[in-house]
Structure formats: C-alpha cells, structure tokens
Design brief:
about 130 residues, alpha+beta, binds tetrahydrodeoxyuridine, 4 helices
Length: about 130
C-alpha cells in the first residue's frame, strides 16, 4: 500500500467523523504489517470529555481484530496545516507500535512525515510495584 493510498483512505474516513461539538473532523488510517488497513474517526459526545480521537479508534479496531503489528498511520483533518496526533494518542500508539511511520496531511495537501519515536521520544512504558 502506498503512502498516497493510505492518506486517501484516511481522507475518506474523515467524512464519517462524528464531530458536531468541535466542528473538527479527523480521519485516520492505520496500516498493519500484513497489509490490512483499519480506519478511525473522532467520535464526540455531548459530555465533551468522553470524545475519542480518530487515531485511538483506529488502533482499538485493529487490536479488537487481533492485529498488533503496525507499519504506518495517516491522519487528515480539514485544517490547512497538518495536525499532529495529540499526546494521549501518542501514548496509545506507542503501546503497539514503536517504529510506526506517521503521515499527517492538511487540506492544502501539505504532508509531514514523521515517526512515533520522534513524536514520543521519552515514553512511559511500564512500572514496578
Ligand atoms: N482529535 C483527534 O481525533 N485526534 C487528535 O490527535 C487530536 C484531536 C479530535 C478530538 C476532538 O473530537 C476534535 O479533534 C477537536 O479536538
């Protein structure tokens, strides 16, 4: 799967976002190492704090299908500039993908390519009790 195709799938998913409160739809497409794609959208709630980001919804779908090995993630919004995954999503992505490529594209078509390691350089990984 090409980067262009993964971004295109994220863009198509964005149309299914449920974002009536923020007016900020987000689409994500997560590519597994075996070539499958799991899309996600942000799903908001009248109780605002219960809203869930597109990236985490994509990851949850994949894990629920038994997939835990990922190669790349595409994220798109309607913002002109590329919009990076939030801090909470970075932590959640790190759990299953330490060398994930991250492609973020704005509505202007400007694309930033980075990695989860670059976005989340000092992760919380585990603890001892
Ligand atoms: N949002 C995402 O879906 N992903 C992010 O990485 C940051 C923010 C969503 C949450 C909320 O529905 C809307 O964007 C505005 O914050």
């Amino acid at each position: 799967m090409s980067d262009d195709e993964l971004v295109r799938l994220a863009r198509a998913a964005k149309e299914r976002a449920y974002a009536p409160y923020s007016g900020f739809p987000v689409g994500a497409a997560l590519l597994s190492r075996d070539g499958r794609v799991f899309t996600g959208v942000n799903v908001e709630n009248a109780s605002y704090g219960l809203s869930v980001c597109a990236e985490r919804n994509a990851m949850a779908r994949a894990v629920a299908e038994g997939v835990r090995d990922f190669a790349a993630l595409a994220v798109v919004t309607n913002s002109t500039e590329p919009t990076m995954p939030c801090g909470v999503c970075r932590q959640v992505l790190w759990e299953f993908a330490h060398d994930l490529r991250v492609l973020v594209e704005g509505s202007s078509g400007e694309r930033v390519e980075t990695t989860i390691a670059e976005l989340f350089p000092q992760p919380f990984t585990s603890f001892e009790v």
